[in-house]
Amino acid sequence: MSETAELKLPGQTIELPIVVGTENEKAVDISNLRAKTGFITLDNGYMNTGACTSAITFIDGEKGILRYRGIPIEVLAERSSFLETAYLLIEGKLPNQAELDFFTNRVRRHTMIHEDIKRFYDGFPRDAHPMAILASVVSSLSTFYQHEESRSEADHFSLNTVRLLAKLPTIAAYAYKKSIGQPLMYPQNSMSYCENFLHMMFSTPAEHYDVDPLMTEILNLLLILHADHEQNCSTSTVRMVSSSKASLFAAITAGICALWGPRHGGANEEVIDMLTQMRNEGGGVRKYIDQAKDKNSKFKLMGFGHRVYKNFDPRAKIIKAACDKLLSKMKIADPLLDLAKELEEAALKDSYFIERKLYPNVDFYSGIIYKAMGIPTVAFTVMFALGRLPGWIAHSKEYSNEPGNKINRPRQIYIGEPLAEYVSIEKRK
Ligand code: ACO
Fold first, then answer.
1. Cα of 306 to ligand 1 centre, how many Å?
2. Hey, is 231 helix, strand or coil?
3. What is the pLDDT of residues 385-429, one digit of tens each?
4. Pick the catalytic residue: 226, 306, 313, 395?
5. Best substitution site from 269, 356, 364, 380 to test ligand 1's pocket, by max atoms within 8 Å of Cβ?
6. Is the beta carbon of 304 within 6 A of some atom in ligand 1?
7. 165 CB contacts (<8 Å, ≥6 apart)?
8. pLDDT (tens digit, 9 = 90+) per residue, 184-221?
9. What is the pTM of this model?
10. Annotated catalytic, 101?
C-alpha cells in the first residue's frame, strides 16, 4: 500500500496521499484538502510547493545534479548540440540520425521573419531594451500565424515550435543591429544554428565575416546549459499561461517577460554592472562582500545564490572552465574576470556565504563569456532566452498534453478589510 501522511487540523485528522517521484522525491498530495476540510495551504514564494509532476528535468540542489530527460548536464555539455538537446527536451528522447536531420533542416527552413516584421524595428526607440523587443516581436508572431485551423493541434504545436526555435535568433540579432544602426543581416541557412546567430549579430554586408569556431562551440555550450531548469519563474509562467489555452507564442512571450527581471535571467547583466562598478570605484572586493552582508543595505552579490542549488550550481562549474578556455584562446585579459575570480574566492571563504550556502550561479560567468564574444551587456538576458526556449516549449507541451489538465488558479488568504461601507464622496475624509 502506498504511504500516506496524517494531517491534524482543529477538530479533524485526515490522511493525505504521498506522491513519490522516480528519484524518490516525496510530496504530500493536497489536491483534495480544501474539499475535505475547508483549509488551503499557504506558501509565499512557492518555497515548498510542487506545482506539477514533470518528466523533463531533474535537479538535486543539495548534490548539485542537473539532468535533462535523465541525461546529466555534464554529458550533454560535452557531447550534444543545442538543437539535439532541444529535441531531447521537447520530444522526450534523443533523436536518431534521421530524426535529427529532419528536425535540424526544418528549423533551418524557418529562420527568416516576415518582411513586415522588419518594419516594427523602425518603430522601436534606438535604445529600446532588447528584451522588450524580443517580447514584442515574439508576441506579434501570433498575428502572422493565426489562420491555421486546418492543422491538427499537434501539427500546429510542432510547426510553431520550429518557427520559434528558428526565428528567435533572427529576432534577437535584428534587435542588436537596430541598436547600433547597422543593416539587418538575413540568416544563412547553410550554417549551423550557432554559426548563423553569430553571423547575423556580427557580419555586415560590407565585408566577409568568418564565424569563429571556438565562439560557435562555446555558444552551443551556453545554450545547452540554459536549455531547461524545471519550475523556475519563467517556466512556471509559461505553464501558467499555457493552462489558459493561450497560444504558444503568447506563453513564450510571457516567459520572456518573466525572465527579464534581475532576480532571474536579468542577473547576468547585473553581474557585469556590479563588476564594472567595483573596478571603477576601487576599494577591493572585501568592501562589496561586507556591503552584501549588511542587513541595512539592499546590495546583494549578483551571480551568487540560488533558490534550488545549495551546494554548487553544476552549470557554473562547466561555464567557468569554458570562460577560461575562451579568454585564454582569444588572448583576452579581462580585468573584470580577475575581479570575478577574486570575488568568488573571497566570498567562498566567508562564513556568511558558507552558512547560507551561497555559491556562484550560472549567471556569474556567463556574462563574462558574452562580453568576450562582443555581445552587449544589455543583450545578455536575450542570450539566456535563446537558450531557455526549448525548455519553455517542452513544459508548455507537457502541460497541454496532460490528461484532465486544469487552468492554473492559485488561491489566497484574504487579509484586507472585512465587509465595508461605500461612503459617498462628500462624506469621505
Ligand atoms: N548576496 C548576499 N546575500 C544573499 C545573496 C546574495 N547574492 N543571496 C541570498 N542572500 C542571503 C539573503 O539575504 C538571506 O539571508 P538571511 O537568511 O540572513 O535573511 C539568505 O541568503 C537566503 O536568501 P533568500 O533571498 O531567502 O534566498 P532565495 O532562494 O529566496 O533567493 C536568489 C535566491 C533570488 C537567487 C538570491 O540568492 C539572489 O537574489 N541572488 C542574486 C541574484 C542572482 O544572482 N540571481 C540569479 C539566480 S540564477 C537564475 O535565475 C538563472
1. 6
2. coil
3. 999 999 999 999 999 999 999 999 999 999 999 999 999 999 999
4. 306
5. 356
6. yes
7. 83, 86, 107, 389, 390, 393
8. 999 999 999 999 999 999 999 999 999 999 999 999 99
9. 0.90
10. no
